[in-house]
Amino acid sequence: MKEMKWYLINMACWTRAMDLMYSLFVIPYFFIPTLVVLPVGVFSLIGVPTQIQLVMLVIIITAEMCRLFLLFLLFLSTSASDFFDFDWDSPYESTEDVRYLGRDDGRTPSERGEPHPSTQAQMNERFKEDMLAVLQKRSRAHFDDLARYFNPNIQIQSCFASGKNLNADQLYQLMINLSAYYRVWSNVEFENRDLAGPKYAFVIMRHNATIHDGSQIAGKWKYEASFKRLWNYFLIDHLTFVGSCRGIPQTAPQDPLEDPDHFVERVRTKLVSDLFLPYGYSKKLENFEDFGDWITEAAQFVVCDEPKMNKKEFIKFMADRYHGIRRYSDNVFNYTKNQQDIEITFSTTWEAPNTTLYRDTYTFRVKKEEDYVPQLDNSFSYWRIYWVTKKCTVDRTRHPAILDGANNLMEVNKRFCGMIDGENWDVFQSFLDLFDPKDTKWGACVGARDLGYDKIREHMEKVAMRYAKCVVTQVNIRNLIRAEFATTFTMSRATDIQEQEEVDVGFSGFKDKDGYWRMNRMYFLCDETTQKRKFIEL
Prior knowledge:
This protein is α+β, with helices and mostly antiparallel strands and 538 residues long. The chain folds into four domains: 2-80; 117-241, Nuclear Transport Factor 2, Chain: A; 280-395, Nuclear Transport Factor 2, Chain: A; 406-525, Roll (Nuclear Transport Factor 2, Chain: A), CATH 3.10.450.50. The protein contains twelve helices and 16 strands. Strands 6, 7, 8, 9, 10 and 11 form a six-stranded mixed sheet that branches. The chain has a five-stranded mixed sheet with strand order 1-5-4-3-2, with helices on one face. It is extended and about 85 Å long. Residues 22-33, 77-104 and 529-538 have low confidence and may be disordered. The chain crosses the membrane at residues 20-46, 52-76. Pfam families: 7TM_GPCR_Srh, DUF5382, DUF5382_C, DUF5382_N.
């Protein structure tokens, strides 16, 4: 019995030590078992009966087990976030198969920051994603992403031209031709074969597809890649379309292989769930070039208040205009089918970097267009956009005239400087939207002949050409109830940014019938006693 007593004393001491370790270093608020462990050693020293000590020991062990279980639950709760890595930029809606929803955000693996494929698994995953994006959505960005990992001596072949090696552009033409021919994808499978260890990748992709007449055909792709020590990642050595070419027409059909509704749906998905994705990510030039693949080279572009432009200039215009915009809302997509073409109308509201809201509306006209496919040595008919119209931007930022014109005052000054600074939105149109077209008078100097609304833009374009930077240095409020104030702008010359001039401009407005502020007076103040710039002749 004496040995049993010392055994209990030792166990109590060790338990006490473990309890202190957990309590002090793991999680301090699980300290309750300490109040139970300490008396065990004390009871052993003062001669408490063994039966009571055994009961206390059971209590201690039970408490310790409960605490360890709670610690285990705590560990799971703190590490659970690693298993739920949500991509907040992914689209909120999609018409694609749910199996690919997690990757349907429009971005390529490289744009998401994925590393170079240095393992077999990474190479296979990139091949799967990029191939499906090209074949299902004709994504040029994903094709270029995959082409980055083509071996300079890559062998690309297809059953259309057996024994002939294709280049990257020919491969892309082949893939988009197949994309138009395949209407609905199904039973997509990827078979990985480990033939030569981890430094070699071999994958076979199989799928079924429904074509325009409702029948199904099978497709098959094969690729081989190997790890290159010089680059320290995988490169694709062989890529082959080994599916049967007998079911795919070799002659040019009279009508496009793709159903018009299917093409319209792809355009809708590209606009609503990619380029103008609500709470989306910043777009780059490549994203809009991808959309440009659906536009003919000879397309006509009519953009409000912009000079005539070609396809390349229009794509760059869109990329520059929406670069950095991360918030879109109220996307509206409609279309009508006429006898000869399809007319698509798309509108979106977007928030500029200066928090101003604007609404853009585009009209796309679609018709049949023949495109030569070099692999088949023939021309095929596709649906292509041949006319693009962009209406003038509409300002959606309106300030209620509840108390005074303070908010309107700041908005006027912000947009005035926006024209000088050359922001990437319709700066002149947004400034004009503040004024009432029917009752606006303005002048180069007080006392000079009043001019109308239609002359404001012409004058402000001259001002913007003269200066490169604008800063509000002083605001003199005359009457906030009528939004009447004068602002001193300090502006740097475009030819020499160190040379600055002060410009005083007076504004006044009124509350319209809907309860919103509108401006209707603007005068450039010319003070002969100071060095203020005269704006009579620019």
